[in-house]
Amino acid sequence: MSTYIDSLNWRYATKKFDATKKVSQEDLDALLEATTLSASSFGLQPYQILVVENAEIRSKLRPAAWDQSQITDASHLIVLANQNSFGAELVEEYVDNVSETRGIPAEGLKGYADFMKSKLVPLSEDAKAVWTAKQTYIALGNLLSAAAINKIDACPMEGFDAEQFNDILGLTEKGLNTSVLVAVGYRSEEDETQHYKKVRKSKENLITHI
């Protein structure tokens, strides 16, 4: 646990990346696997993970993200895009996956499937979008922690125009919405923020034992 805490103390939201340094394919695959293994409500994972490497596309995205240099200078830009909406098919696809993966007859999962549908399908469209977006933030946490443990720098980013991102990445027609971004790579020696002391609320002010 001490190594994990040390890694969390080491990480920070990197403001300036070294554009000459790239995350290896092996390390990138590990980060993506950690993200894939993230918890989600009912295990449904109602989002997609996009890895944007194309320099031309990233140059188009940068103005839509307040011209932040991380968009183009980081080794990779990861976009977590939530589903705008869904129907019973979200549950049905998951149940089919469970049946195949665990060797369980689909009929034996019908009760659980019906329960999930009863809780999720009747939600309003706005509530569905909020719920799916929340799931991306669970994945975000895993991604940031996995990066820190492997001494890969990362910067979670909410400063962007989602509509422009959706248009450039062709997400709208896929029923997806840009929820949050993560730039990953290696910090530049010129990034002064890496030397700042980490500021967090004290445990006394943040944690309540009941």
Task: Explain the overall architecture.
Pfam families: Nitroreductase. InterPro entries: NfsB-like, Nitroreductase, Nitroreductase-like. Its cofactor is FMN. This is NAD(P)H-dependent oxidoreductase. The protein is of the alpha+beta class and 210 residues long. The chain folds into 2 domains: 2-85 and 130-206, 3-Layer(aba) Sandwich (NADH Oxidase); 87-120, no CATH class. The chain is 45% helix and 14% strand. It is built from 9 helices and 4 strands. It has a 4-stranded antiparallel sheet with strand order 1-2-4-3, with helices on both faces. Helix 2 (25-36) crosses helix 7 (125-149). The chain is globular. The two termini are 24 Å apart. 29% of the residues are buried.
What's the short story on this structure?
A four-stranded antiparallel beta sheet has the order 1-2-4-3, with helices on both faces. The protein is globular and about 60 Å long. The protein has nine helices and four strands; from the N terminus they run H-H-E-H-H-E-H-H-H-E-H-E-H.
Q: What's the helix and strand layout?
A:
Layout: H1 2-10, H2 25-36, E1 47-52, H3 55-61, H4 70-73, E2 76-83, H5 88-102, H6 110-120, H7 125-149, E3 153-157, H8 162-169, E4 176-185, H9 203-206
Antiparallel strand pairs: 1-2, 2-4, 3-4
Helix pairs in contact: 2-7, 5-6
